[in-house]
Amino acid sequence: xxxxxxxxxxxxxxxxxxASDYRSSPDVVRGFCGRCGTALTYWHAGWPDEISVTIAxxxxxxxxxxxxxxxxxxxxxxxxPADGLPQFSADRPP
Length: 94
Hints:
The protein has 94 residues and is mostly beta strands. Helix content is 0%, strand content 29%.
């Protein structure tokens, strides 16, 4: 389980250094810190103009507010959001 914040690829910048990339499958590239291994980004070929950033890697994760919950079909049993936001069993609809 991971919290992600999705932005336009062109809007994504690192303020210091850059991510190391790892192609984890033919359609997915994951970015991570090459020094400590922290997961940083997730990019999928199906959404080429977007990149997702791990919320926990942000300097101030409290500035990011959720708009929905996706992939709930894979949530652990105790993950039952009660915040009233939309929930989707897989990806959000287009």
